[in-house]
Amino acid sequence: MTALVLLDHEEGRIRKSALSAVTAASRFGDVHVLVTGDAAVAQAAAAIPGVAKVLHAADAQYAHELAEPLAALIVSLAGGYEQIVAAAGAVGKNVLPRAAALLDVQPIPEVIRIVDAETFVRPIYAGNALATVRSSDAKKVLTVRGSAFDAAPAEGGSAPIEVVAPAVNPNVSEFVAVHLSDSERPELESARVVVSGGRGLQSEEKFHILEPLADKLGAAIGASRAAVDSGFVPNELQVGQTGKIVAPELYLAFGISGAIQHLAGMKDSRVIVAVNKDPEAPIFQVADYGIVGDLFEIVPALTTALN
Amino acid sequence: MNSLQNTVSNAGKILHLQAKEAMKIVVPVKRVVDYNIKPRVKADGSGVETTGVKMSMNPFDEIAVEEAVRLKEKGVASEVVVVSIGVQQAQDTLRTAMAMGADRAILVLSEESPEPLAVAKVLKAINEKEQPGLFILGKQAIDDDMNATGQMLAGLLGWGQATFAGKVEVADGRVKVSREIDGGTEDVSLSLPAVVTADLRLNEPRYASLPNIMKARKKPLETLNAEDLGVDMARRLTVVSVAEPAERQAGVKVGSVAELVEKLRNEAKVI
Ligand SMILES: Cc1cc2nc3c(=O)[nH]c(=O)nc-3n(C[C@H](O)[C@H](O)[C@H](O)COP(=O)(O)OP(=O)(O)OC[C@H]3O[C@@H](n4cnc5c(N)ncnc54)[C@H](O)[C@@H]3O)c2cc1C
Ligand SMILES: Nc1ncnc2c1ncn2[C@@H]1O[C@H](COP(=O)(O)O)[C@@H](O)[C@H]1O
C-alpha cells in the first residue's frame, strides 16, 4: 500500500506537523509526498528519510496552496494511493475535505491514533471524548494531529523527485495576499515550552510582560481566545479546540481560567503550570503546579528566578 | 461635475450594482450540545449523552447567520434562508436563526448528527432548489469537530471556498475574504457563487430580542426528508466506541516562585 502525504510548508520551510504526518502515513506502507512551491522545497522533501518519492507540483497555480486547484490535483493523483494524509493544520483542513468530497469519501479529521488501516481514534467534543471510528470507504482521507505523532527526521533521505502535470484548475479562486506575523520564536505547535496568556493580561501592552520569560525559556507564546478577541495578540496564537493544539514539555498558563475549549488545545502537555488569582479557576484542575496570585507580580519574579 | 451631481451619480451606480448583485444566502445551522455543558460519554460507550442535555445552535453557525443578516442589512443580500439537517427538534435552532433575522427555514429530517459528506450532498440538493449566490457555514461543529462540511460542499458544487473567514466583503460579483491561517491571515478573492466558512472573529452575533423571537414563530419553515432530495445518508464511518480521555490529576499548589522553580527543576525536570 502507498500513502500520499500533502506536505505543507510556510515560506519554503516544511512544517514540523507535516513531518508528523509522514510518520503517521508510514504506518500504512510506502509514503509519497506532494509538495508545492519551488525546487528547494521539493529537495527538502526528498531529504526526509522514509519518503519513497516526491511529487512536485511546481506549477505556479499551486504556489499558495489554494484549495480549489490543489484538491483537483490530489484527485487527479488519487488513483495510485490507498490513503491521502495531511497534517491537521490550516492547509490540510482546507484542502483535504474538498478532495475527499470529489472522491466521494468521508474524511477522518484530526486523527490521534491509527489502530489499523480502517480504524482510527479522533477526539470529539473538544477532546472530552475519544471516538474510535471505522471507515468503510475504499480510500481513506485523513488529517493527523502533529502533537500525536513524532516528527519524521528532516535529513538523511534522497527520494527521487517527479514534477507532476497540473490538473484542470476550476479557476474560481484567486490568491490576493498573505500577512504572516514574523516572529523569532519557535513555532507554537512544536515548541518545547509554551508561555500562554489570557484575559488576565489586561491589554496588548501588558501582554509583553510574558516576553522576557518566554525568551529565557526559549518558549513560544500562546494565548486564550479571550486574549485574541480582545486584541492583545494575533489570531494565530490562539490555543484550543478551534485554535492550535499543543503538547509541549512545559505549558505555563497565566491569567487563563481554563474553559474546556482552551483545555482542548493544551491538556496533553507533559507539565502544566497555572498562575491565577482565583483559587477556584478550573485551570488548576489540570495543572501539575499552581500558584494562586497576581500574575503581574509572579511573572517578573519567575523571570528573575530563572537567572 | 459638481459634488452634488457626483453624489447622485454614485448613488445611482450603487443602487444599480445592488440590484444586479442582491442575492440569496443560505446558512446551514446545526443543533449541538450547548458549548457551556461538559459533555458526558454514555456508560455503554456508544456516544456522548444528548438526551436531557441543553442543546443550542452551533456557535460558529450563529456567527454565520449574523454575517448573512448583516449582508442583507447592507443590501448585498436579498434573502437569508437557514437549513438544518437533523431531528425534529432542530426546528428550535431554525427559529433562533430566524429570530436573529433569517427570513425562512428548511428542516431536512435525518438522524441526529449526519456526516459532513451526507450534509454536503443535502446542501447540494438545496442549492438546486434555492440557487443562492453564497453559502455561509460555520467553520466547525463543536460536537463532532469535523471542520469539513463547507469544504466538501464547495467541492461538490465546483465553487470557490473561503474557509476560516475573519472578514467578508462582497462586491463586483466576487467575495473577498480574509482567512485565519496557521501563520497569520490570508486574503483570497472568489467568483460568486461561493462558499464561506465563519471563524470566531468574523463578527459578534446579536441576541434575538423578544419581539423578534415572536416574529420568528410566524416565519415559514418547510420540512423535507433527505430521501425526498434523493440523497444517500448512509454513514461511511462506524463508531466502534466512544471513551473518556484519561483524566489528568490535579497537581499541587505551591506557595512561592522559588518553590515552583525548585519543583520544575528537580521534580518535573523540565527546566
Ligand atoms: C465555539 C467556541 C470556540 C472556542 N474556542 C476557544 C479556543 O480555541 N481557545 C480558547 O482559549 N478559548 C476558546 N473559546 C472561549 C472559551 O470558552 C473561554 O471563553 C476562553 O478560553 C476564556 O479565556 P480566558 O481564560 O483568557 O478568560 P477568562 O475566562 O475571562 O479568564 C481570565 C482569568 O484570568 C484570571 N486573572 C485576572 N487577572 C489576573 C491577575 N492579575 N493575575 C492572575 N490571574 C488573573 C481570572 O481569575 C480568570 O480566571 C471558545 C468558545 C466558543 C464558544
Ligand atoms: N446537520 C447539519 N445541519 C446543518 N448544518 C450543518 C450540519 N452539519 C454541519 N453543518 C454546517 O457545517 C458546518 C461545519 O460542520 P462540520 O464540518 O461538521 O464541523 C457547521 O458549522 C454548519 O454550518
From TrEMBL, chain A:
Keyword Transferase in annotation: no
Native species: Acetobacter farinalis
Family: Belongs to the ETF alpha-subunit/FixB family.
Keyword vocabulary terms for this entry: Electron transport, FAD, Flavoprotein, Transport
Electron transport listed as a keyword: yes
InterPro entries reported for this sequence: DHS-like_NAD/FAD-binding_dom, ETF_a/b_N, ETF_a/FixB, ETF_alpha_N, ETF_asu_C, ETF_asu_C_CS, Rossmann-like_a/b/a_fold
Protein name as it appears in the record: FAD-binding protein
Source species, domain of life: Bacteria
Residues in the signal sequence: none
UniProt cross-references to CDD domains, sorted A to Z: ETF_alpha
Electron transfer flavoprotein alpha/beta-subunit N-terminal domain residues: 3-179
